[in-house]
Structure formats: structure tokens, C-alpha cells
Amino acid sequence: MIKIALALGMEVLSYTLEAPPSGGGVTYVTLEELLQRSDYVTLHCPLTPETRHLINRDTIALMKSSAFVINTARGPLIDEAALIEALQAGRLAGAGLDVQEVEPPAEDNPLYDMENVILTPHMGWKGLETRQRLIHILAGNIKAYLAGSPINVVS
């Protein structure tokens, strides 16, 4: 994602709970600054008690009304009720969601009818490169098992 954004001439801001790496064309900022300055906020983090509802009424209030939220990570990172409210009120320009707070989502979920929302069925991980990597890992696991030294063993 970073490489694509940089290739498009975007300034890339990032927030992390861990010590940020140096370089790479990324500027590390606080979450508040990231939300206030960003035109596109993409989520790339695990779901933990600390990240649940990372995007909520309070954090949305910090964002530009012209901003877009993109979530291909975990649905509960976003408080969906707060997101819907903000989208309907014009406090956010739009959202792209590959995951939702509850899966499968309810048939009457308002996100289905919003012109400023793009939904995909939790398939963001299914790109060609990912599939090739999975096949490579699988082949390595089979070879190791047949050689008598299985890897990634779970007891």
C-alpha cells in the first residue's frame, strides 16, 4: 500500500503502537494528526482490545469531511454504527470495506444502499501474489514433513 501511494505522489502518514522504522518515505505521526490530515485512512492492524473500534464517533470527528476510510483488516476496527451515521450526515466522503463489524452482515445493513460505499466480500487477501506465497509455503511445509522435520507444528 505504501509503495502504491508513494508512486502516486501521495504523502504517506502512519501511526503505529510500536517503535516506527526509519525511512521508507513514511512520516510517523500521532493517531490524532493522522486522522486530521489524511484524505484516505487505511487500516492495517490486528484486532485487539486496544484496536477495537479504533474508528469511532470521536475519531471520525477528527477527520476531514472529504476523507475516505478503507478497511481490509478486521471489521470490528470500525464502529459501524458511527461510520454509517457519519456517511449519512456527510461527515465522511466515503468508505471502502472488505470486512464488516459483524460477518455475515445483516441483509438490511444500510451500507448496502449507500452510493459512497464500496463493499467487497472479505476477499482482499486473495490476490495473485498472496496465492503464490501460500502455494510456496504449502510446498515448503510438505517437503519438510516428508523429510521428517515438519515445521509450524501445533500440539
From TrEMBL:
<dbReference type="InterPro" id="IPR036291">
    <property type="entry name" value="NAD(P)-bd_dom_sf"/>
</dbReference>
<keyword id="KW-0560">Oxidoreductase</keyword>
<dbReference type="InterPro" id="IPR006140">
    <property type="entry name" value="D-isomer_DH_NAD-bd"/>
</dbReference>
<protein>
    <submittedName>
        <fullName>Glycerate dehydrogenase</fullName>
        <ecNumber>1.1.1.29</ecNumber>
    </submittedName>
</protein>
<dbReference type="InterPro" id="IPR029753">
    <property type="entry name" value="D-isomer_DH_CS"/>
</dbReference>
<feature type="domain" description="D-isomer specific 2-hydroxyacid dehydrogenase NAD-binding">
    <location>
        <begin position="2"/>
        <end position="124"/>
    </location>
</feature>
<dbReference type="GO" id="GO:0008465">
    <property type="term" value="F:hydroxypyruvate reductase (NADH) activity"/>
</dbReference>
<comment type="similarity">
    <text>Belongs to the D-isomer specific 2-hydroxyacid dehydrogenase family.</text>
</comment>
<dbReference type="Pfam" id="PF02826">
    <property type="entry name" value="2-Hacid_dh_C"/>
</dbReference>
<keyword id="KW-0520">NAD</keyword>
<dbReference type="GO" id="GO:0051287">
    <property type="term" value="F:NAD binding"/>
</dbReference>
<dbReference type="InterPro" id="IPR050418">
    <property type="entry name" value="D-iso_2-hydroxyacid_DH_PdxB"/>
</dbReference>
